[in-house]
Amino acid sequence: MYQTHRPLGAMRWILSLLLVLPLLAQAANEVLPSWNDGPSRKAIEAFVGAVTTEGSKDFVPVAERIAVFDNDGTLWSEQPMYFQVLFAFDEVKRMAPQHPEWKEKQPFKALLEGDRETLAASGMKGLLEIVGATHTNMTTEAFSANAERWLASAKHPRSGKPYTEMVFQPMLELLDYLRANGFKTYIVSGGEVAFMRVFAEEVYGIPPEQVIGTTFASQFQDKDGQLSILRLPKLAHNDDGPGKPESIDSIIGRRPILAFGNSDGDLQMLQWTMAGKGKRFAGLVHHTDGEREWAYDRESKIGRLDKALDEAKSKNWVVVDMAREWTRVYPFETAPSKP
Amino acid sequence: MYQTHRPLGAMRWILSLLLVLPLLAQAANEVLPSWNDGPSRKAIEAFVGAVTTEGSKDFVPVAERIAVFDNDGTLWSEQPMYFQVLFAFDEVKRMAPQHPEWKEKQPFKALLEGDRETLAASGMKGLLEIVGATHTNMTTEAFSANAERWLASAKHPRSGKPYTEMVFQPMLELLDYLRANGFKTYIVSGGEVAFMRVFAEEVYGIPPEQVIGTTFASQFQDKDGQLSILRLPKLAHNDDGPGKPESIDSIIGRRPILAFGNSDGDLQMLQWTMAGKGKRFAGLVHHTDGEREWAYDRESKIGRLDKALDEAKSKNWVVVDMAREWTRVYPFETAPSKP
């Protein structure tokens, strides 16, 4: 009996191997498939290999594998304007019938009349008024429903795609790759936290409790047993620049070992990440692709990358050349658009 | 060959079974071993069974199994005074040589001279001054080192045990049991967040990023490339009462399905948890054990339980009778002290 079993066993073994081999090959290709073989992909793989190899001098236990990502311009596009600002503009138009006073009140009047010059002249103060009117004095639940409705129907002015499709395919792959290697992935963004939570889990695989952002003060309300959290028109935390390491310290309570950003607003988060002990990784998405996405850096009003680019170069941080290193920018590009 | 193998196989199988059976029996007892067969343990097991049984109408996906716990009086003792306040008192004594002005300045003078009456008369304002002086105007790193040093050496005035051993064995078991059933366990406490993070991971198995508490404003500092987070003497968030659902909404971004507290400061967190859809659990630790721990509720200055006890009774929340339901209070009790 043994004699007849052995060849069958061997055949089965060879057969299984034949079935498994293509899967193994495919698995190897599936790591960061939209990154070409350039320096960024190599640096990412070398870093992840080093911190996840037990016995390596650079090994980092799973619990400490914290990775933080900026959102606007790092995980999705931010042109011609931060998408959340476009949401606020659309919300003003939607809410205008309930606010007849806006017809005579700036900056709402300018926005409703399409008077771009006056709107631009209202500056940051005007923008904060628009954000306040569309983001606060309502419950978190009501706000989230508004954001959800907008994200489900609004289209990006250039691509005509929903905003949640204007995410970077290579960064989705990087998030997956890190999580598959035991990393906990966080968003740490200047965007408002409840807005991002509406899509972050579905689009990025990042759950609400791993989304950190700008926050408004809030108030617990109990109206005859009807409980809610009211969003107040008062900033509690501005999660930009130095606000990023501050919120990382306050909310995560430990230092990330990997950080990715794209603008000067991410500089302190990258510095804070790199200042810890042991092997660390800092990356910048450099918007170099005027064809498939946008090309901008030192002179841009949105997502200016100037000081952080200098520091990245002087400290050998990874600067991703989008045009050269990404074979695909958006998930809706069906085939790689560059070799 | 087969003929001789079969009985051996069967014997092996029976042998393995004999070896495994006691382990199975033990495993069954290992769930919440310090809880007797009272109503609280039954309610906990019924709830966890319902929300984790696939196909059950009460099933909750793993991602939504968020459990929140108060700390003082819920996970560890809080008598004769919140342990963090005792830490602040000890820190004033330790820091006094560097602060000669405290000899003449209240409430520090009273504290250093052991003048309890004057100290008590300084009230909440005095306490905040003491907490401010010992918790702020230093980096998070420096503060954590202070807290760590104190926790490693200080002893509780009655038990003579380190404070980190004054934790409730049945609650440690509950945390383990919930995590084994896919729950993410959080602390949501009036205590200051950096203080709790020093011991929460080791003692409770709760990582820094799942510790939520009262926070001070902070400031990112860059002194010639030396980076730090400076703690400012200004409250950013008071995580007590309505502050608890506010921080849950802001930091976790979804509603817990289980909450445990012990005082009126936890009422809004319990209400917020119970007001969601689907099956939910609210529990209160009732300090009924003057022998092994402390007995206090409606009249206590520390951890007053009055309104929340009424609401728990009217809404059939679980109220744990510590004296009757816990066979063991602290881990250092080697044998169950009650049957």
TrEMBL record, chains A, B:
Keywords, comma-separated and alphabetical: Amino-acid biosynthesis, Hydrolase, Magnesium, Metal-binding, Serine biosynthesis, Signal
Catalytic activity field: O-phospho-D-serine + H2O = D-serine + phosphate; O-phospho-L-serine + H2O = L-serine + phosphate
Coiled-coil parts of chain: none
Pathway: Amino-acid biosynthesis; L-serine biosynthesis; L-serine from 3-phospho-D-glycerate: step 3/3
EC number, UniProt record: 3.1.3.3
InterPro entries, per database record: HAD-like_SerB, HAD-like_sf, HAD_sf
Metal-binding among keywords: yes
The protein's required cofactors: Mg(2+)
UniProt keyword annotation of Magnesium present: yes
Organism superkingdom: Bacteria
Top-level EC class as recorded in UniProt: hydrolase
Secretion signal, residue range per the UniProt entry: 1-27
Designated name of the protein: phosphoserine phosphatase
